[in-house]
Amino acid sequence: MTMFQNLHRSMTASQTLKVQCDVCRHLGAFSAAEAKKVFGSDATPMEIRRRVTCKVCRAAGRARIWI
Ligand SMILES: [Zn+2]
Q1: Domain residues for 17?
Q2: Residue 55 lies in a domain
Q3: How many domains does one find in the chain?
Q4: pLDDT greater than 70 at residue 1
Q5: pLDDT tens digits, one per residue of 5-33
Q6: Where are the alpha helices (DSSP H) in the chain?
Q7: CA 46 to centroid of ligand 1, rounded, Å
Q8: Angle 13-43-2 (CA atoms, 0-180°, nearest 5)?
Q9: Cα of 55 from ligand 1 centre, angstroms
Q10: Ion ligand 1: residues, CB < 5 A
Q11: C-alpha of residue 6 to centroid of ligand 1, in Å
């Protein structure tokens, strides 16, 4: 698991952003292009964490995020 500063600095085109729900363990992934489109290139891990809602259990702000 790698901490990162923001998406623009940290993701190459071939990487995926993994997002796992801390409540139900549902795991999702965004391609670099999707992640930048949804969260913005300047998004930090904390901002992404705050903004994501689990598709399965609807828990908000309870995700683990890594690249
Ligand atoms: Zn969940």
Answers
A1: 7-66
A2: yes
A3: 1
A4: no
A5: 899 999 999 999 999 999 999 999 999 99
A6: 7-10, 32-39, 45-51
A7: 18
A8: 65
A9: 7
A10: 21, 23-24, 26, 54, 56-57, 59
A11: 24
